[in-house]
């Protein structure tokens, strides 16, 4: 898998420019997107998952153009947004079953197998009969990853996933993402927390006021900032 972002810009009504000629190449594995609040990270994520159109520039997924092949690209995507809510009357397994149906898993038997597999993968199998909206914050985040992965996407976009989590749950979540990042899959982790990226990503980019100011290994960024 490879994502190419070329001269991407986004200008909102009123003239605010959220992205300014951003160019990036993202390959397999964990990719970190770092920057303070308001840097343009969420805008970039929403463009990549086809929820927002850029003002100019081009994005391709393995050669598929984002503007011309939105349907095919959406079938390749999984997304965990920063603001994430559960349906109040669904149990954990029911919520994930519903997500599987939306992801195109037609047969009930296939969905049951996929649901059980994903609940095991994210450590929620024992909580399968609990109401989804009653789970702890960390468990909800893990369920969010499960719903994003149940269709076996080639690209997973995770926006500020560890905000509000305690240190133990944050570490568990980072380890889960790192395990998922092996093989032919891209995981983009957008955050303002340096530790989330330095411990789990082999490549990263930093945005500041909508501009790309760094791309490369996290260690090299730390060396540049030393002192």
Short description:
This protein is 34% helix and 26% strand. It is an alpha/beta fold.
- CA radius of gyration is 18 Å
Which ranges are low-confidence, i.e. pLDDT below 50, for 5 or more consecutive residues?
none
The biggest beta sheet reads: 6 strands, mixed
Q: What's the shape?
A: globular
In DSSP terms, counting alpha (H) and pi (I) runs of 4 or more, how many helices? 8
Helix and strand element order: EEEHEEHEHHHEHEHEEH
Query: Order of strands across the biggest sheet?
Result: 6-7-8-3-9-10
Which secondary-structure class do the elements indicate?
alpha/beta
Task: Produce the secondary structure layout.
Elements: E1 3-11, E2 17-26, E3 29-34, H1 41-48, E4 56-61, E5 64-65, H2 70-74, E6 77-80, H3 92-102, H4 108-121, H5 137-149, E7 155-159, H6 167-180, E8 186-191, H7 194-198, E9 203-208, E10 211-216, H8 218-225
Parallel strand pairs: 3-8, 3-9, 6-7, 7-8
Antiparallel strand pairs: 1-2, 1-4, 4-5, 9-10
Helix pairs in contact: 3-4, 3-5, 4-5
Textual characterization of the structure:
- The protein is an alpha/beta fold and 227 residues long.
- The chain is 34% helix and 26% strand.
- The strands form 2 sheets. It has a 6-stranded mixed sheet, sandwiched between helices.
- α3 (92-102) crosses α4 (108-121), α3 (92-102) packs parallel to α5 (137-149) and α4 packs across α5.
- The radius of gyration is 18 Å and the shape is globular.
- The protein starts with a strand and ends with a helix.
């Amino acid at each position: 898998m490879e994502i190419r972002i070329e001269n991407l810009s986004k200008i909102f009504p009123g003239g605010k420019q959220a992205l300014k000629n951003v160019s990036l190449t993202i390959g397999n594995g964990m990719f970190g997107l770092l920057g303070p609040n308001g840097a343009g990270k969420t805008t970039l994520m929403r463009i990549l998952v086809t929820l927002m159109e850029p003002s100019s520039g081009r994005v391709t997924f393995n050669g598929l153009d984002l503007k011309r092949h939105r349907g095919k690209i959406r079938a390749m995507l999984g997304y965990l947004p920063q603001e994430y809510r559960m349906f109040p009357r669904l149990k954990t397994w029911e919520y994930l079953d519903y997500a599987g149906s939306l992801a195109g898993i037609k047969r009930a038997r296939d969905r049951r197998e996929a649901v059980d597999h994903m609940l095991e993968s994210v450590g929620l199998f024992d909580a399968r009969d609990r109401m989804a909206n009653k789970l702890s914050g960390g468990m909800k985040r893990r369920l969010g990853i499960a719903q994003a992965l149940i269709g076996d996407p080639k690209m997973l976009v995770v926006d500020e996933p560890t905000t509000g989590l305690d240190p133990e749950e944050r570490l568990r979540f980072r380890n889960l993402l790192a395990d998922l990042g092996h093989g032919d899959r891209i995981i983009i982790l957008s955050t303002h927390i340096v530790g989330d990226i330095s411990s789990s990503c082999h490549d990263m980019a930093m945005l500041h006021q909508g501009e790309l100011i760094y791309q490369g290994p996290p260690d090299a960024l730390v060396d540049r900032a030393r002192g």
